[in-house]
Each structure stands twice: as C-alpha cells, then as structure tokens.
Amino acid sequence: MSAVALAKAEPLTISHTMAQDWDIKSRGTACRQCENPFEDMQPYVSILTFEESGYIRGDYCSSCWDKEGIEKSAFSTWQGVFRLPPAKPEDPVQKENAESLLRKLIEDDAERHINVIYILAVMLERKRIIEEKDVKIADDLTTRIYEHRQSGETFVIPDPQLRLDELEHVQEEVIQMLEGDKPQDEEPETAEESPTDNDSPSPQ
114-141: per-residue pLDDT in tens? Predict the structure, then answer.
C-alpha cells in the first residue's frame, strides 16, 4: 500500500453494487415525462433511483412533476435550474485541474482513490463549481449527492469520514496528482515542502 493511501487509515468497505456505479450522471436536456426540451433558466426536478443496474437519474419539468405525481420515495430528489452549456473553445488548453482529475479518477479507479475523490469534491464545492444537493446515510455509509452548477451532471460521492490525522496525507496526494506526479509506493526519505496553488486543498 502506498504511503499516500493512508497506512494508518482503516479501509472503507463499499458494496460491490455501489462501487461499480461511480459513473457521472448527465442531466437530461428534456423532461423525462413530456419529452419537451428544457429552456435556458427553466426550473426542473431531478431524482435518483437505485436499481439492480445501479443509479438511474430522471429529470422532470415542474408541470410534469406536479401533474403526474412522480414517485418521490426515490434514493434522492432535488430541484435545479437548467442552463444551456457554454460554447466550447475552438482550441481548449489541456490542463489538469481539480475537476478534470475528479472525472478521471471516477472513470479509471474510483474505489482505490475514494479519499482523493472526496477531497476534490470538497474543493470544487468551495469553488462553487459543484453544489451539494443531498446527503444520504445507509449501512454506516454516508453518500453526498453533488450537481455541477453549469452542466447539471450528478456526482454520487461516498464520504470516507476522514479523521484529522488522515487529512494531511490525502491533501499531499491531491497536490501530487494535480502537479502530474504519480503517488509513490513508499514515503520519500526526506519530506519536501508541498507547494501551494489555487487547486490545493486547505484543511477544514
């Protein structure tokens, strides 16, 4: 186990069903019920249901949600405002930042990097890039539901309940990853002072 994987920390156990469904849930561009496209700044209601295949997201306009009496006993429900996505730049600069790293870890190796993913989510929430919509606690596992303020995508992030003595190690791992350095399997013999930048997390 690498030093940045927290040798002192107790491993977090995640059920196989939940661990395999870390993919990011995109917001719909139209109401799931009436299929009318959402307009810019139109309110909507989102739900997450947990089925055998994993988390399923549905987005509804206010009229359909009220009129059809959509089942509200889902895993999570929240309200949002639809925003048209901004035009993509013709020549975007490829740069590793907290958001791109979060997406990469969720897609590639989510369960192994659960601590880093959680810290990245906290960083993005502080920067007002994502917004916490709901918190669910089941079987001693706390799950936080975030929504991207611009794209409307949903991030289902387990909260590892890090202790203060664990936080510093995770922050060091985040800084290494943001700088493009892969975590080492062993602690270096001499610790170097960690540089700070806008993407570096700060203790709670």
Answer: 999 999 999 999 999 999 999 999 888 8
